[in-house]
Specification:
alpha/beta, Rossmann fold, 2 domains, eight-stranded mixed beta sheet, six-stranded mixed beta sheet
Length: 405
């Protein structure tokens, strides 16, 4: 059944679909009495009524569904495909678990809420979704995830350099957030000489409380313009959290930044699958040793087994040294061992990397146009490879970073 008031120009349009009379009442009470909002309500399940939802002119679409039923998730995927991201989707469900989190990440909804839903939370979710799609386009963050094949392979250095590269240059600024998900031994904060501000004890009891305001409180800001999310280290504790905590955190960050770079722990947690599944680019970091390559191949197989062939992880071999006339691994050996999964190699430049870490500054500030930064740009930003190569040949000059958001 379709209940649609007359259209009024220049209004915010909210389209809602629900078979829950109580939730329908909440939606009407929240939006129906506001003169600046035009509300459309479709009564029924997404399976039966989803195709009847006229949402093209809407600012945001709210879908109430039973996420435990696969048929409803399939119907949600069909609706998302039909809309193509415009307008954004806010999903409301009465239950949430790891499987649901993975599906919603795949569908790439704008936001989600778990019943019971407070009116203020519904308004905020819709406002965030509408803001993200302002201008008629849904802005989806590009997520770069770095996973170590072994300990000490330099995954944090590469994640940080990637985040700084994605910030862009003057006139090409992008908002970037670096997230350290190694809650036990993470070092992103130490490498950048910042204070950790993520308070997991604040959001773990009620992940749905995490909103833009609370997120801003928990962000650390580097002088380059890079936003960083990291919790204080607890080296003596094995810390694991409900997948909902991590999923909610990543969902909110993705809605507010152009790029998200994730530094993953080596340990596999209950939320690891969700993070890897939701990544646009997944990199396994190894080192130039036979054991390192073996571990990388084992991790490749494990990811493909768990996530299917849709996952396309690439292996980065860090601290690479070209060897011509000495025994040991050569690039041809690495390419043969990894095949199409070989993403690239990062040269070994211990002095520059160590100085950057000790001083808490980007590699480019130690030496502009250094070979590590150039190699990362070629790997992460192929379109800027030529420009980067030209800069490398240019006379060295000081380079400053600026606030990007």
């Amino acid at each position: 059944m379709l209940d649609r008031p007359n259209s009024v120009a220049n209004k915010t349009r909210v389209a809602a679909l629900t078979a829950d009379a109580e939730f329908e009442q909440l939606v009407r009470a929240t939006f129906g009495n506001n003169a600046q909002i035009e509300l459309t309500v479709v009564k029924g399940t997404i399976i039966d009524e989803g195709s009847k939802l006229e949402a093209r002119d809407a600012t945001v679409v709210v879908v109430d569904l039973d996420a435990q039923h696969q048929d409803e998730l399939v119907a949600l995927q069909r609706l998302a495909n039909r809309l193509g991201g415009v307008p954004p989707l806010v999903v409301v469900t009465q239950a949430f678990d790891q499987t649901v989190a993975r599906k919603l990440l795949q569908i790439r909804i704008a936001d989600f809420l778990v019943k019971p839903v407070a009116a203020i939370d519904l308004v905020r979710a819709c406002a965030r979704a509408a803001k993200g799609s302002a201008g008629g386009e849904t802005i989806e963050a590009q997520i770069y995830t770095f996973l170590p094949a072994a300990g000490g392979v330099g995954v944090t250095t590469l994640a940080i350099q990637t985040a700084l590269s994605l910030l862009g240059g003057k006139g090409n600024a992008a908002s970037v957030c670096l997230i350290d998900l190694d809650f036990q031994h993470g070092t992103c904060i130490d490498y950048l000489d910042l204070e950790p501000r993520l308070d997991l004890s604040e959001i773990e009891p009620r992940p749905e409380r995490l909103d833009r305001h609370l997120l801003e409180v928990m962000l650390s800001h580097h002088a380059s313009g890079l936003a960083v999310i990291a919790a204080p280290n607890r080296p003596a504790e094995m810390r694991s959290f409900d997948p909902l905590v991590v999923t909610r955190l990543l969902d909110l960050v993705s809605a507010n930044f152009d790029y998200v770079v994730i530094d993953m722990p080596r340990t596999w947690f209950s939320w690891t699958d969700n993070v890897l599944q939701g990544s646009n680019k997944l990199f396994i970091v190894s080192e130039m040793t036979v054991p390192g390559l073996r571990l990388a191949k084992q991790l490749l197989s494990a990811i493909r087994e768990r996530l299917g062939e849709g996952a396309n992880p690439q292996v980065i071999v860090n601290r690479f040294e070209q060897r011509m006339f000495t025994p040991g691994l050569r690039r041809a050996d690495i390419e043969k061992a990894l095949g199409s999964a070989f993403g690239g190699a990062i040269p070994n430049n211990y002095r520059i990397v160590r100085e950057a870490i000790d001083r808490g500054i980007p590699l480019e500030e130690v030496k502009p146009g250094n070979n590590v930064a150039i190699a990362m740009k070629k790997l992460i930003l192929p379109q800027t490879a030529l420009k980067a190569a030209k800069k490398e040949k240019a006379p060295a000059q000081s380079r400053s970073f600026f606030w990007a958001r």
